[in-house]
Amino acid sequence: MKLLNTINCAILAAALLATSCNTPEAPVQEEPKADFTQVIPTLQAITADWNKGDLDEFITVYDSAATFMLPKGPIGVSEMKGYYQEAFTETGTPTSTLSFDSLEMRPLGNSHALVTGRYILTSQDSTEQSGRYTLVLEHSDRGWKILHDHSN
Asked: Which pTM was predicted?
């Protein structure tokens, strides 16, 4: 019995020694925090692109894998561009000017943001069409990009 206790103590001592000699894991590097003060200006800047009829430049704020929610379900960026061309332009120029209001931004972690607001399309005869939207954006080395747009 004494031999068994000695063996158990030796095994326990070896286990404790082995675990105490392990080097600690490297600390997890926290993702750097993006500059959230640039989210709203990024969105406001694209109104100028829309208003001068540069739909190609307007679309650049969308990530290439972004989705845009329609009543039938989400579509990709190329389908979204076609939707905008058909619904809001005539011969390549916008039928209305675009503006945003009630913009609110909430960080989602260090590099994502949720933005809600209202868009306003003002036609040449001053009638307005407006709706609410929710955007999910991600910051990368290319700046802030929209990952998902749910507008109504």
From this structure: 0.76
